[in-house]
Amino acid sequence: MGHLNLPASKRNPRQWKLLDIITAIFFGLVLLFFLLVFTPLGDSMAASGRQALLLSTSDPRQRHRLVSLVELGHHHKPIEACPANSVDHMPCEDPRRNSQLSREMNLYRERHCPLPDEMPLCLIPPPPGYKIPVQWRESLHKIWHSNMPHNKIADRKGHQGWMKEQGPHFIFPGGGTMFPDGAAPYIEKLGQYIPLTGGTLRTALDMGCGVASFGGSLLSEGILALSFAPRDSHKAQIQFALERGIPAFVLMLGTRRLPFPAFAFDFIHCSRCLIPFTAYNATYFIEVDRLLRPGGYLVISGPPVQWPKQDKEWADLQAVARALCYELIAVDGNTVIWKKPDGDSCLPNQNEFGLGSCDESNDPSNAWYFKLRRCVTSTSSVNGEYPVGIIPKWPDRLTRAPSRALVVKNGIDLFRADTRRWTRRVAYYKNTLNLKLGSPAVRNVMDMNAFFGGFAAALVSDPVWVMNVVPARKPLTLGVIYDRGLIGVYHDWCEPFSTYPRTYDFIHVAGIESLIKLPGSSKSRCNLVDLMVEMDRMLRPEGTVVIRDSPEVIDKVARIAHAVRWTATINDKEPESHGREKILVATKTFWKLTSSH
Q1: What is the number of other CB atoms lying within 10 angstroms of the CB of residue 140?
Q2: Beta pairing, strands 265-271 & 292-301
Q3: pTM of the model
Q4: What topology does CATH give the domain 62-125+395-596?
Q5: For residue range 301-330, what is the model confidence (pLDDT) as tens digits?
Q6: What is the 3-state secondary structure (H, E, C) of 140-172?
């Protein structure tokens, strides 16, 4: 049977539909090929593809290759920017990651870091409209709204005097939940019971601090308070505190010791911090006791102190304090003030919380990823005379060698030499290298390898505060730093730091390569590229980095500095110093995301 030739109009319409689709796809592919090869769209899409590859966690080999190229100086372009939604990213406090963890003892709100190969290798961008921060001391009272446009606290807590939006600024009247009329009258009330003036008290810890108005108000009394709060539903408490120029740190009291040495703080404060001090057989009260210097003061305001429907919790809190022989100084409304005994706690053999003294093998200053212990730290476990009232008053304690310096061999002599060395070095930084130290442009300072805190001590007359970081794998010298009236934390620099992006004006590190090496070994545990990308995350645009190390290390650091968009110069060390050190001084450029991101 022959084929029947129908007119075009009579052919099967489904055949034409299929043919049309195939033809359209073919011409579409040709057009796409033309666009990719011959137009800027191809470049843009390739850049997006590179970023997707860069941000991918599925191929560690690609990441390792990029790190090697950057270290060798063969990666001629800057490291890519992270996506726009990462402007406030903290790798170890990522709610999306941590929300899967247990709620027991707030485990899910503690630090939980991704493995290095799981972290994108990219630079955190500033938010749209970001401005160089308001300078100190004006920043204590107002900051740019556009630098952290998070209105949740202002909306929820404005009536309590926390903060308010006013034109292009957030303003801080100085209030808090327990002191809506401002911290000053509240501090004046505490001053009736505690020696807040005269240098007796110097280091303080403010737990669950809000926007840190309490810590900010204590600065005028010569008291250096480190404020902490977790990353929580208010989103940015600590970010606001640091933008104001107040010492602060992202932290949660959960399953581990807080990253501070024993007997660090002369004064510990909780204003409606809602820490369940007597839960888990008083484990959290015991941790506060570990941190509080003998003879120091503990202040708790708000629940459960004489609080409605919390009679049992209030009774239990008083019972724990009695078991540890704390002296009740006052109960004033919803505020209780205790004084810790100067000597060892008078723990009875039997108490309702089952508390006993820690054994000799327990180093009370070991506090990096160290599980909480339900035992009481004895004062004899730390050598030296350090109780409040016996330790020299501020500022004399700054330069007095404390007995805790003996944690390293010849510690007292090393302490004195270290103090003299850093006085010389900081003078060279200011007078020869012309760094901005001492100017209003520098407020928040970090020393990444602090040892005895000599760098921070040499800055004591400047309008700065210094976060002294003692690497967790090095000798535990952080107790010395607190004994001299300075503050700091333990940290391992193979992990990201617990702070928001853009929170430090000036970052200093002597011996950067030692931060990534195994102690006593030439083998690296992590790499300088990741470390410097993390430094860039913490540093504010136009902020300064100073790195001291051998010429070989400084050359490598200079190559990486180019890749993280810093402008850097290499300088000779001060003439009085021995050794082969060079000094790299770098400035973070103020770059912004392009529309293609």
Answers
A1: 20
A2: parallel
A3: 0.90
A4: Rossmann fold (3.40.50)
A5: 999 999 999 999 999 999 999 999 999 999
A6: HCEEEHHHCCCCHHHHHHHHHCCCEEECCEEEC
